[in-house]
Amino acid sequence: MTTAAGRPALVEGEFVFTAEDFRHIAEILHSHAGIALNEGKAALVYSRLAKRLRALGLRSFREYCALIQGVEGVDERQSMTAALTTNVTRFYREPHHFDHLRDEVMPVLAERARAGGRVRLWSAACSNGQEPYSMAMTVLSVLPEAAELDVRILATDIDPNMVAEGAAGVYSEEALAPAPVLLRQRYFEKAPIQGRDRLSANATLRRLVTFKELNLIGDWPMRGKFDVIFCRNVVIYFDDATQERVWSRFTPLMTPGAMLYIGHSERVSGPATARLRTSGLTAYRLAS
Predict the structure, then answer these.
(1) Please, which pLDDT band fits residue 4 given cuts at 50, 70 and 90?
(2) Which of 48, 112, 118, 186 is flagged as catalytic?
């Protein structure tokens, strides 16, 4: 299949999708979100963005590229990013991190909080909230009064739809199955929605976690430092240079001895390696 101009189609389908179209989309996605796409993802890009073309009433990917490149394309660039990112998450994913947080990190932080000190944690790619709520339940397992003290968790994600889901804090019983039974029973309550049983984060969890939209390669408005940062299974979508920049941006926002937890297939690289020391499986501690 070729276009009227004789350009070969990269993927055959309802809309003409050429290598040039793919290149434009990949460049904009990388510029906007840091995500690197190779041409092997062309079919995935086509299938996910064809839905956007239909929703927008566009006739071709060339029209779509013109839209997202223009000044008026800000909202659609966000929608494109949401369509092309995979929000795979679950409660207590990679449970060794939560064991380490509970056993090795929280006892010291709990002592500080009880003495009136400030404790801050950050879920830097929170998806629909399952990670930060897992962090919150881990904190509460050691420090049940955390919500009454100066302890808070910031949960951020580039996708506003995921941020909204996290703030809503409503999940199926199946989604919450990996959470420890006693913690699940203590901090989630029944919430029948549209005739189906759901579990909703209770007031204690909600007081601990604040959800905000944030692009990891954009501006970071935070000024205070963090004692714990979870940034897991997101930089794998970045190229090497972008990964190094992200790791290096974390270290100035970490308190001495703070922990950084990363995904199982990720490794800290670049200048940040001079300041971060391995402290468990895919866990790093900032050198004091």
Answers:
(1) very low
(2) 48
